[in-house]
From TrEMBL:
Catalytic function, reaction form: iminosuccinate + dihydroxyacetone phosphate = quinolinate + phosphate + 2 H2O + H(+)
Cellular component aspect of the GO annotation: cytosol
Species in which this protein is naturally found: Actinacidiphila oryziradicis
Cofactor, free-text remark: Binds 1 [4Fe-4S] cluster per subunit.
Protein name: Quinolinate synthase
Length: 394
Protein backbone atom coordinates (compact mmCIF):
# COMPACT_ATOMS: atom_id res chain seq x y z
CA UNK A 1 0.00 0.00 0.00
CA UNK A 2 1.56 3.31 -1.01
CA UNK A 3 1.13 6.50 0.94
CA UNK A 4 -0.74 8.14 -1.93
CA UNK A 5 -3.27 5.34 -2.03
CA UNK A 6 -4.06 5.88 1.62
CA UNK A 7 -4.84 9.57 1.34
CA UNK A 8 -8.34 9.41 -0.14
CA UNK A 9 -11.06 9.90 2.41
CA UNK A 10 -14.32 8.10 2.85
CA UNK A 11 -17.62 9.93 3.23
CA UNK A 12 -19.13 9.96 6.68
CA UNK A 13 -22.81 10.22 7.55
CA UNK A 14 -21.88 13.08 9.89
CA UNK A 15 -22.88 15.95 7.62
CA UNK A 16 -26.42 14.61 7.52
CA UNK A 17 -26.63 14.51 11.27
CA UNK A 18 -25.19 17.79 12.36
CA UNK A 19 -28.37 19.78 12.49
CA UNK A 20 -30.83 17.08 13.46
CA UNK A 21 -31.96 16.35 16.99
CA UNK A 22 -31.90 12.64 16.23
CA UNK A 23 -28.56 11.00 15.61
CA UNK A 24 -27.51 7.72 14.09
CA UNK A 25 -28.17 5.02 16.73
CA UNK A 26 -25.22 3.02 15.35
CA UNK A 27 -22.85 5.85 16.09
CA UNK A 28 -20.89 6.39 19.30
CA UNK A 29 -22.87 9.47 20.23
CA UNK A 30 -26.25 9.57 21.93
CA UNK A 31 -29.58 9.48 20.20
CA UNK A 32 -31.29 12.73 21.05
CA UNK A 33 -31.08 15.87 23.07
CA UNK A 34 -34.17 16.36 25.21
CA UNK A 35 -35.33 19.61 26.77
CA UNK A 36 -35.99 23.16 25.68
CA UNK A 37 -32.87 25.17 25.19
CA UNK A 38 -32.60 28.85 26.00
CA UNK A 39 -32.45 31.00 22.88
CA UNK A 40 -28.90 31.82 21.76
CA UNK A 41 -30.00 35.46 21.63
CA UNK A 42 -30.93 35.52 25.34
CA UNK A 43 -28.82 38.41 26.71
CA UNK A 44 -28.80 36.81 30.18
CA UNK A 45 -27.09 33.56 29.19
CA UNK A 46 -23.75 34.40 30.83
CA UNK A 47 -25.46 35.51 34.03
CA UNK A 48 -27.70 32.42 34.04
CA UNK A 49 -24.68 30.13 33.64
CA UNK A 50 -22.87 31.93 36.48
CA UNK A 51 -25.87 31.73 38.79
CA UNK A 52 -26.53 28.04 38.14
CA UNK A 53 -22.84 27.17 38.55
CA UNK A 54 -22.64 29.13 41.82
CA UNK A 55 -25.78 27.35 43.08
CA UNK A 56 -24.23 23.96 42.36
CA UNK A 57 -20.91 24.91 44.03
CA UNK A 58 -18.56 21.97 44.67
CA UNK A 59 -21.16 19.52 43.39
CA UNK A 60 -20.31 20.35 39.79
CA UNK A 61 -16.99 20.12 37.97
CA UNK A 62 -16.88 21.48 34.42
CA UNK A 63 -14.32 20.11 31.97
CA UNK A 64 -13.50 22.06 28.80
CA UNK A 65 -11.69 20.44 25.89
CA UNK A 66 -9.12 22.63 24.11
CA UNK A 67 -11.25 22.74 20.96
CA UNK A 68 -14.32 24.18 22.67
CA UNK A 69 -15.75 27.62 21.97
CA UNK A 70 -14.54 30.54 24.12
CA UNK A 71 -18.05 31.07 25.54
CA UNK A 72 -17.92 27.55 27.02
CA UNK A 73 -14.24 27.54 28.02
CA UNK A 74 -14.99 30.58 30.18
CA UNK A 75 -16.98 28.34 32.53
CA UNK A 76 -14.56 25.40 32.58
CA UNK A 77 -12.88 24.54 35.89
CA UNK A 78 -10.10 22.84 33.94
CA UNK A 79 -9.11 22.65 30.28
CA UNK A 80 -7.10 19.99 28.51
CA UNK A 81 -7.08 17.19 25.99
CA UNK A 82 -9.45 14.25 26.35
CA UNK A 83 -7.21 12.08 28.49
CA UNK A 84 -6.10 14.84 30.85
CA UNK A 85 -9.72 15.81 31.38
CA UNK A 86 -10.80 12.24 32.13
CA UNK A 87 -8.04 12.03 34.73
CA UNK A 88 -8.96 15.42 36.15
CA UNK A 89 -12.51 14.14 36.56
CA UNK A 90 -11.24 11.04 38.36
CA UNK A 91 -9.29 13.34 40.68
CA UNK A 92 -12.49 15.08 41.84
CA UNK A 93 -14.41 12.34 43.70
CA UNK A 94 -16.38 14.96 45.64
CA UNK A 95 -18.00 16.32 42.48
CA UNK A 96 -21.41 14.71 42.01
CA UNK A 97 -21.76 16.02 38.47
CA UNK A 98 -19.00 16.07 35.88
CA UNK A 99 -20.11 18.26 32.98
CA UNK A 100 -17.94 17.31 30.02
CA UNK A 101 -17.73 20.03 27.40
CA UNK A 102 -16.23 17.84 24.71
CA UNK A 103 -17.57 14.96 22.64
CA UNK A 104 -19.27 11.65 23.39
CA UNK A 105 -16.23 9.33 23.56
CA UNK A 106 -14.56 11.70 26.03
CA UNK A 107 -17.56 11.62 28.34
CA UNK A 108 -17.54 7.80 28.12
CA UNK A 109 -13.86 7.72 29.15
CA UNK A 110 -14.62 10.04 32.07
CA UNK A 111 -17.47 7.74 33.13
CA UNK A 112 -15.12 4.73 32.98
CA UNK A 113 -12.53 6.46 35.15
CA UNK A 114 -14.91 8.02 37.72
CA UNK A 115 -16.92 6.38 40.49
CA UNK A 116 -20.44 5.01 40.28
CA UNK A 117 -21.65 7.88 42.47
CA UNK A 118 -20.57 10.49 39.92
CA UNK A 119 -22.73 11.38 36.93
CA UNK A 120 -20.90 12.37 33.75
CA UNK A 121 -22.96 14.71 31.61
CA UNK A 122 -22.58 15.75 27.97
CA UNK A 123 -24.47 19.02 27.38
CA UNK A 124 -25.47 18.00 23.85
CA UNK A 125 -25.82 14.29 23.13
CA UNK A 126 -25.32 14.89 19.42
CA UNK A 127 -21.73 16.01 20.08
CA UNK A 128 -20.04 12.93 18.68
CA UNK A 129 -16.74 12.46 16.88
CA UNK A 130 -16.70 11.59 13.20
CA UNK A 131 -13.42 9.71 13.63
CA UNK A 132 -14.72 7.56 16.50
CA UNK A 133 -17.84 6.83 14.43
CA UNK A 134 -15.66 5.34 11.68
CA UNK A 135 -15.03 2.20 13.75
CA UNK A 136 -18.12 0.45 15.10
CA UNK A 137 -18.05 -2.60 17.37
CA UNK A 138 -19.57 -4.78 14.62
CA UNK A 139 -17.02 -3.67 12.02
CA UNK A 140 -14.11 -4.27 14.36
CA UNK A 141 -15.41 -7.72 15.36
CA UNK A 142 -15.65 -8.57 11.66
CA UNK A 143 -12.09 -7.33 11.11
CA UNK A 144 -10.87 -9.61 13.89
CA UNK A 145 -12.57 -12.53 12.13
CA UNK A 146 -10.73 -11.57 8.93
CA UNK A 147 -7.41 -11.51 10.83
CA UNK A 148 -8.25 -14.87 12.43
CA UNK A 149 -9.06 -16.33 9.03
CA UNK A 150 -5.73 -15.05 7.68
CA UNK A 151 -3.96 -16.68 10.64
CA UNK A 152 -2.61 -13.42 12.06
CA UNK A 153 -4.98 -12.59 14.96
CA UNK A 154 -2.74 -14.48 17.40
CA UNK A 155 0.21 -12.25 16.58
CA UNK A 156 -1.72 -8.98 16.41
CA UNK A 157 -2.00 -6.46 19.25
CA UNK A 158 -4.80 -3.90 19.00
CA UNK A 159 -3.71 -0.34 19.82
CA UNK A 160 -6.63 2.07 19.92
CA UNK A 161 -6.50 5.81 19.99
CA UNK A 162 -8.25 7.52 22.88
CA UNK A 163 -10.59 8.95 20.23
CA UNK A 164 -12.68 5.79 20.00
CA UNK A 165 -15.92 4.59 21.53
CA UNK A 166 -16.03 2.64 24.80
CA UNK A 167 -16.93 -0.46 22.73
CA UNK A 168 -13.69 -0.20 20.77
CA UNK A 169 -11.69 0.38 23.95
CA UNK A 170 -13.33 -2.73 25.42
CA UNK A 171 -12.46 -4.76 22.30
CA UNK A 172 -8.87 -3.57 22.74
CA UNK A 173 -8.80 -4.60 26.40
CA UNK A 174 -10.33 -7.99 25.63
CA UNK A 175 -7.68 -8.76 23.01
CA UNK A 176 -4.64 -7.81 25.08
CA UNK A 177 -4.15 -4.34 23.61
CA UNK A 178 -3.72 -0.83 24.90
CA UNK A 179 -5.15 2.64 24.40
CA UNK A 180 -2.88 5.48 23.33
CA UNK A 181 -3.07 9.24 23.04
CA UNK A 182 -1.33 11.44 20.50
CA UNK A 183 1.33 12.06 23.19
CA UNK A 184 2.17 8.44 23.95
CA UNK A 185 1.42 6.64 20.65
CA UNK A 186 5.15 5.96 20.14
CA UNK A 187 5.47 4.30 23.56
CA UNK A 188 2.30 2.30 22.94
CA UNK A 189 3.65 0.95 19.64
CA UNK A 190 7.04 0.21 21.16
CA UNK A 191 5.27 -1.75 23.89
CA UNK A 192 3.17 -3.65 21.37
CA UNK A 193 6.19 -4.58 19.26
CA UNK A 194 8.59 -5.10 22.15
CA UNK A 195 10.46 -8.29 22.72
CA UNK A 196 8.65 -9.89 25.63
CA UNK A 197 5.52 -7.86 24.91
CA UNK A 198 2.23 -9.70 24.62
CA UNK A 199 2.84 -10.60 20.94
CA UNK A 200 5.54 -9.33 18.75
CA UNK A 201 4.82 -8.78 15.18
CA UNK A 202 1.69 -6.84 14.21
CA UNK A 203 -0.45 -3.97 15.40
CA UNK A 204 -4.06 -3.31 14.48
CA UNK A 205 -4.26 0.47 14.91
CA UNK A 206 -7.73 1.95 15.45
CA UNK A 207 -9.41 4.19 14.33
CA UNK A 208 -7.04 6.93 13.05
CA UNK A 209 -4.94 5.75 10.12
CA UNK A 210 -2.89 8.95 10.15
CA UNK A 211 -1.76 8.81 13.79
CA UNK A 212 -0.92 5.13 13.28
CA UNK A 213 1.06 5.68 10.08
CA UNK A 214 2.79 8.85 11.29
CA UNK A 215 3.92 7.19 14.50
CA UNK A 216 5.09 3.99 12.80
CA UNK A 217 7.00 5.80 10.04
CA UNK A 218 8.29 8.93 11.85
CA UNK A 219 8.95 7.52 15.29
CA UNK A 220 9.59 3.81 14.77
CA UNK A 221 11.35 4.03 11.41
CA UNK A 222 8.92 1.75 9.54
CA UNK A 223 8.45 2.08 5.81
CA UNK A 224 5.01 3.22 4.57
CA UNK A 225 4.95 -0.17 2.83
CA UNK A 226 4.94 -1.88 6.24
CA UNK A 227 1.44 -0.41 6.68
CA UNK A 228 -1.76 -1.69 5.08
CA UNK A 229 -5.11 0.03 5.20
CA UNK A 230 -8.12 -1.97 6.37
CA UNK A 231 -11.29 -0.61 4.80
CA UNK A 232 -14.33 -1.80 6.79
CA UNK A 233 -16.58 -1.07 3.82
CA UNK A 234 -14.86 -3.64 1.60
CA UNK A 235 -14.97 -7.46 1.86
CA UNK A 236 -12.02 -8.64 3.98
CA UNK A 237 -11.08 -5.01 4.48
CA UNK A 238 -9.98 -4.85 0.85
CA UNK A 239 -6.87 -6.88 1.73
CA UNK A 240 -5.60 -10.33 0.87
CA UNK A 241 -4.41 -12.78 3.51
CA UNK A 242 -0.88 -12.36 2.08
CA UNK A 243 -1.01 -8.59 2.57
CA UNK A 244 -2.17 -9.05 6.15
CA UNK A 245 0.61 -11.56 6.82
CA UNK A 246 3.28 -9.26 5.37
CA UNK A 247 2.13 -6.09 7.17
CA UNK A 248 3.54 -4.77 10.45
CA UNK A 249 0.82 -2.17 10.92
CA UNK A 250 -2.81 -2.81 9.98
CA UNK A 251 -4.31 0.66 9.93
CA UNK A 252 -8.04 1.18 10.27
CA UNK A 253 -9.42 3.43 7.56
CA UNK A 254 -10.52 6.29 9.81
CA UNK A 255 -9.45 9.89 10.02
CA UNK A 256 -10.25 13.17 11.71
CA UNK A 257 -12.35 15.39 9.47
CA UNK A 258 -10.72 18.49 10.99
CA UNK A 259 -7.03 17.55 10.82
CA UNK A 260 -7.53 15.65 7.56
CA UNK A 261 -8.26 18.95 5.82
CA UNK A 262 -4.69 20.26 5.99
CA UNK A 263 -2.76 19.63 2.80
CA UNK A 264 0.75 19.93 1.42
CA UNK A 265 -0.51 23.01 -0.47
CA UNK A 266 -1.39 24.73 2.82
CA UNK A 267 2.15 24.10 4.08
CA UNK A 268 3.76 25.38 0.87
CA UNK A 269 1.44 28.35 0.77
CA UNK A 270 2.18 29.50 4.31
CA UNK A 271 5.94 29.10 3.79
CA UNK A 272 5.67 31.35 0.71
CA UNK A 273 3.57 33.93 2.59
CA UNK A 274 5.58 34.02 5.83
CA UNK A 275 9.32 33.46 5.34
CA UNK A 276 10.91 31.65 8.28
CA UNK A 277 7.56 30.41 9.63
CA UNK A 278 7.61 27.30 11.83
CA UNK A 279 5.00 24.82 10.74
CA UNK A 280 3.66 22.86 13.71
CA UNK A 281 0.97 20.22 13.11
CA UNK A 282 -0.98 17.58 15.01
CA UNK A 283 -0.16 13.91 14.21
CA UNK A 284 -3.77 13.34 13.09
CA UNK A 285 -2.79 15.22 9.90
CA UNK A 286 -2.00 13.28 6.72
CA UNK A 287 1.48 11.81 6.44
CA UNK A 288 2.58 14.16 3.65
CA UNK A 289 1.62 17.17 5.81
CA UNK A 290 3.44 15.80 8.84
CA UNK A 291 6.50 15.03 6.68
CA UNK A 292 6.57 18.63 5.42
CA UNK A 293 6.12 20.22 8.88
CA UNK A 294 8.91 21.45 11.16
CA UNK A 295 7.36 20.03 14.29
CA UNK A 296 4.64 17.53 15.07
CA UNK A 297 2.84 17.08 18.37
CA UNK A 298 -0.32 16.69 20.41
CA UNK A 299 -2.43 19.67 21.50
CA UNK A 300 -0.55 19.77 24.81
CA UNK A 301 2.75 19.76 22.88
CA UNK A 302 1.53 22.61 20.65
CA UNK A 303 0.51 24.70 23.67
CA UNK A 304 3.89 24.15 25.37
CA UNK A 305 5.87 24.82 22.17
CA UNK A 306 4.16 28.18 21.74
CA UNK A 307 4.66 29.07 25.40
CA UNK A 308 8.39 28.41 24.97
CA UNK A 309 8.74 30.12 21.57
CA UNK A 310 10.77 33.35 21.46
CA UNK A 311 8.99 36.67 20.95
CA UNK A 312 8.90 37.66 17.29
CA UNK A 313 8.83 34.08 16.00
CA UNK A 314 6.22 33.04 13.42
CA UNK A 315 4.10 29.88 13.62
CA UNK A 316 1.56 28.21 11.37
CA UNK A 317 -0.48 25.73 13.37
CA UNK A 318 -2.30 22.72 11.96
CA UNK A 319 -4.96 21.92 14.51
CA UNK A 320 -8.49 22.98 15.44
CA UNK A 321 -9.28 26.65 14.92
CA UNK A 322 -10.76 27.53 18.33
CA UNK A 323 -7.49 26.50 19.96
CA UNK A 324 -5.32 28.30 17.41
CA UNK A 325 -7.30 31.51 17.87
CA UNK A 326 -6.95 31.33 21.65
CA UNK A 327 -3.21 30.69 21.35
CA UNK A 328 -2.81 33.67 19.00
CA UNK A 329 -4.65 35.84 21.51
CA UNK A 330 -2.55 34.55 24.41
CA UNK A 331 0.75 35.29 22.60
CA UNK A 332 0.45 38.74 21.02
CA UNK A 333 4.27 38.95 20.86
CA UNK A 334 4.39 36.04 18.36
CA UNK A 335 2.86 35.68 14.92
CA UNK A 336 0.53 32.68 15.15
CA UNK A 337 -1.58 31.79 12.14
CA UNK A 338 -3.91 28.96 11.24
CA UNK A 339 -2.32 26.61 8.70
CA UNK A 340 -5.30 26.42 6.35
CA UNK A 341 -6.94 29.28 4.48
CA UNK A 342 -10.44 28.08 5.21
CA UNK A 343 -12.04 27.76 8.65
CA UNK A 344 -11.60 24.42 10.29
CA UNK A 345 -13.61 24.00 13.49
CA UNK A 346 -14.58 20.65 14.92
CA UNK A 347 -18.28 20.98 14.13
CA UNK A 348 -19.39 18.36 16.63
CA UNK A 349 -17.37 19.96 19.46
CA UNK A 350 -19.02 23.22 18.51
CA UNK A 351 -22.44 21.77 19.25
CA UNK A 352 -21.68 22.42 22.90
CA UNK A 353 -22.56 26.09 23.15
CA UNK A 354 -23.68 28.42 25.90
CA UNK A 355 -27.42 27.60 25.57
CA UNK A 356 -26.66 23.87 26.05
CA UNK A 357 -24.39 24.61 29.00
CA UNK A 358 -26.99 26.87 30.64
CA UNK A 359 -29.70 24.26 30.09
CA UNK A 360 -27.47 21.57 31.64
CA UNK A 361 -26.43 23.62 34.68
CA UNK A 362 -29.94 24.91 35.39
CA UNK A 363 -31.37 21.39 35.11
CA UNK A 364 -28.75 20.08 37.56
CA UNK A 365 -29.37 22.98 39.92
CA UNK A 366 -33.07 22.00 39.86
CA UNK A 367 -32.08 18.45 40.82
CA UNK A 368 -32.68 17.00 37.35
CA UNK A 369 -29.81 14.95 35.90
CA UNK A 370 -29.86 15.31 32.11
CA UNK A 371 -27.80 13.74 29.30
CA UNK A 372 -25.97 11.32 31.58
CA UNK A 373 -23.39 9.17 29.78
CA UNK A 374 -23.15 5.68 31.26
CA UNK A 375 -21.03 2.83 30.02
CA UNK A 376 -22.34 -0.63 30.86
CA UNK A 377 -20.39 -2.71 33.41
CA UNK A 378 -18.88 -5.28 31.04
CA UNK A 379 -17.75 -2.69 28.50
CA UNK A 380 -16.37 -0.60 31.33
CA UNK A 381 -14.40 -3.54 32.72
CA UNK A 382 -12.55 -4.31 29.48
CA UNK A 383 -12.17 -0.67 28.43
CA UNK A 384 -10.60 0.04 31.82
CA UNK A 385 -8.19 -2.85 31.29
CA UNK A 386 -6.97 -1.22 28.06
CA UNK A 387 -6.75 2.20 29.73
CA UNK A 388 -4.80 0.74 32.64
CA UNK A 389 -2.34 -0.85 30.20
CA UNK A 390 -1.78 2.60 28.79
CA UNK A 391 -1.19 4.05 32.24
CA UNK A 392 1.37 1.31 32.88
CA UNK A 393 3.29 2.02 29.67
CA UNK A 394 6.98 2.56 30.38
S1 LIG B 1 -11.23 17.20 16.18
FE1 LIG B 1 -11.43 15.31 14.98
S2 LIG B 1 -10.89 13.64 16.38
FE2 LIG B 1 -11.29 15.50 17.63
S3 LIG B 1 -13.45 15.31 18.22
FE3 LIG B 1 -13.38 16.56 16.33
S4 LIG B 1 -13.64 15.05 14.66
FE4 LIG B 1 -13.12 13.89 16.51
Amino acid sequence: MTTTETLDVQPTPLALLLLGREADPRSERGVNCPGDLPAPSDPDLVERARTAKAKLGEKVFILGHHYQRDEVIEFADVTGDSFKLARDAAGRPEAEYIVFCGVHFMAESADILTSEAQAVILPDLAAGCSMADMATAEQVAECWDVLTEAGVADVTVPVSYMNSSADIKAFTGRHGGTICTSSNAKRALEWAFAEGGPRQNKVLFLPDQHLGRNTAVRDLGFSPDDCVLYNPHKPNGGLTAEQLRAAKMILWRGHCSVHGRFSLDSVEDVRARIPGVNVLVHPECKHEVVAAADQVGSTEYIIKALDAAPAGSAWAIGTELNLVRRLAKAHPDKQIVFLDKTVCFCSTMNRIDLPHLVWTLESLADGKVVNRIQVDKETEHFAKLALERMLALP
